[in-house]
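Page 42, continued from yesterday. The earlier attempt failed because a stray header line got pasted into the input along with the sequence. Redoing it now with the clean sequence only.
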Amino acid sequence: MVDTVSGAQARRIALAAQGFGRSPATAVGTRQLNGLVDRLGLLQLDSVNVFERSHYLPAFSRLGEYDKTLLDRLTFAQKGRYVEYWAHEAALIPVDSWPLMRWRMQHYRDLSAGDPTAWSHANRPMIDWLRAELAEKGPLPARAIEHDANKRSGPWWGWSDVKRGLETLFRWGDVVTAGRTRFERVYALPEQVLPNEVAGREIGRHEAHRELLARAARAYGIGTASDLADYYRLKTADVKPALAELVDSGELLPVTVDGWNKPAFLHRDARIPRRVETTALLSPFDPMVWYRDRAHRLFDFHYRIEIYTPAPKRVYGYYTLPVLVDDRIVGRIDLKNDRQARVLRVQAAWQEPDAADGVVPRIAALLDRTRAWQGLDAIEVAGRGNLAAALAAEL
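This time it went through. Structure tokens are written below.
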């Protein structure tokens, strides 16, 4: 039985659990993509498209070049294996995970019911009408719903009342997604797209928390209670009893990790590889780095995305992606996909102080694979960052 884990072992456990370091498939097909989403448990969605939408990147970082339209067909099918919900943030999850979120749906419903100023109180007729509209016409995007209130207004990113009502129903679980068109959610009633056994399944709050915690532990391999709770945004009060049960059952093993100041838990199925070989770009919303405290503990990597930082105050760039080489994060690169000019623009490139020698050729090769995956013709490197000159010379 393992009692103590070194910091390096913890990194390799975490990377292996997330699917890094495996021999790449000769061709990435549906089996590999489904296997990856099942391993991760979710793909976080984000609308920023300056380089590439976030949910496409975990597959590229772990599997290499693949056809994005294939992932679209799997994840955005109207009656497919995946559906959206607020899991970590907005995310694609396996359909059978949807009932595990019923407690959260009820939580959102209770919040609305208990707040007399909530939008849903003053707009009950709109909510009832939207349910009836979807029942009559089937799955629809918000823009396709004809109503006088379907005009952009207010502070919710310009949402109309129709959009606001659909999102309220989505949070409550009264409406689900039936894929996306042009990255716009298509809304449906649960019975229109979910299998009967999924739509009708009731899972209690405690049972759901225990299962979500177990899935987080499998996906992470190793982590603190806070790490595991964050994967599905669970509250500490709910995690403690579920964590104790998973330890009692032997699914989680309490361990000490050198350099960590909190107790850790190792999943019983986690591998401890002797080495991990990989070169990858990580999305800012990749599970390896989305919980910044964990990224700092694992990689000694302080990471903050600067999308919402005013340009003069940005340190590294607008959309910087961490660069993983083997079991270390060695740098960060601010990328832009200039689709019109067919150029991958490296707006800034930074190397971490403790990066090993010889990483520049590997990063250059990674960028060239990225260019090919995006269907671009060239790479252009701007002069910003302590890695930029060496990277430009290598390319």
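Notes: DSSP finds 16 helices and 15 strands in the chain.
Reminder to self: strip header lines before submitting.
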